[in-house]
Write a structure and sequence with these properties.
The protein is mainly α and 309 residues long. It has helices spanning 27-48, 56-76, 78-101, 118-130, 138-143, 159-190, 197-239, 244-280, 284-296, and strands at 11-16, 22-26, 111-116, 145-150.
């Protein structure tokens, strides 16, 4: 059985929903459910056991949450930043855990063996069209190729998942812009000056592509790279036993790099979401913060003024 790389997530089983169609449960979808269950259970336990004197787990969570909160408040301001912090924080924690889930032992390596012969059948059909009567490609189509279909796959390595998060971000950005400026104000905000409006529309739509493909491409390429490094290490161990340390060191280095890249990609996605929302609502919340700051700290009247009479 050779290395099998599939760009799309593999279907584990299908559920017939009748007139609604068929629901395909993929390995990335199953991993996403497990990640979400872990987040709900882990964060719920931290919230229930929270105390004034935090333990190790509570301290680690508070440091991570404070790190994201400082970034949000530093970019969007204190008042507006705290309003969008739940979204940015949820995206950051979900994406980073999804990225790291692909590095766990058994993810991508434990699964079921299946015979995939779609490529050989296509090749045989093309050959039959080009050379009628030539059945040389028929045995290859019947034999097929045995590949490993893993039970688990990182959700970030599935374009469907990254595209869904990009669409959520795009929708929230537009809602925030309309809520801050109104429909007409949002259009005027994008059409300032007017000849830039088509460019702004294309720019808004291109964010969906950039957000989804950046995360998907980096995580998918990283998993393929780690898989190739493991295959190289295995081949080295089969040839000689004297450089076993070197063989184990090769994938270890790339695993540490993937830990770094997983953090960076989660941070980039959350920060871009924060920046897009801040730009869409620019001007509106700054006025609200100034008003709230002025109400909290009124300007004192000079002594002897008309206000004191």
């Amino acid at each position: 059985m050779e290395i099998h790389v599939s760009v799309k997530a593999e279907t584990l089983w299908s559920i017939d929903l009748g007139p609604l169609g068929t629901l395909h449960i993929t390995n990335s979808f199953l991993t996403m459910i497990l990640v979400m269950v872990f987040i709900l259970i882990f964060f719920s336990l931290i919230a229930r056991k929270a105390s004034i004197i935090p333990g190790r787990m509570q301290s680690a969570f508070e440091i991570a949450a404070q790190f994201v909160l400082d970034l949000v408040e530093g970019t969007a301001g204190r008042q507006f930043g705290r309003r969008i912090f739940p979204l940015c924080g949820a995206l950051f924690f979900f994406i980073i855990l999804s990225n790291y889930s692909g590095l766990l032992p058994g993810v991508g390596t434990i699964g079921k063996e299946e015979v995939h012969s779609a490529a050989e059948e296509t090749h045989a059909r093309i050959a039959a069209i080009e050379r009628p009567g030539d059945d040389s490609a028929a045995p290859a189509a019947e034999e097929g190729e045995t590949v490993l279909v893993p039970f688990l796959r990182s959700p970030s390595a599935d374009l469907n998942m990254t595209l869904a998060m990009a669409l959520v971000t795009f929708t929230i950005v537009q809602v925030a812009g309309v809520r801050a400026h109104g429909v007409v104000g949002r259009i005027k905000h994008m059409a300032n000056p007017p000849f830039l409006f088509p460019i702004e529309v294309v720019s808004e739509l291109s964010r969906i592509v950039s957000l989804s493909f950046r995360l998907f491409g980096n995580i998918f390429a990283g998993e393929v790279l780690v898989t190739v490094m493991y295959a190289m290490a295995s081949a080295i161990l089969e040839k000689t036993k004297y450089i076993a340390i070197f063989a184990f060191a090769i994938p270890t280095v790339f695993l540490f790099l993937e830990v770094l890249f997983g953090f960076v990609q989660a941070l980039v996605f959350a920060l871009l979401t924060l920046i897009y929302i801040s730009l869409a609502a620019a001007g509106h919340d700054d006025h609200e913060e100034e008003h709230a700051h002025g109400a909290a700290h009124p300007v004192p009247h000079p002594v002897g003024s008309a206000a004191g009479d």
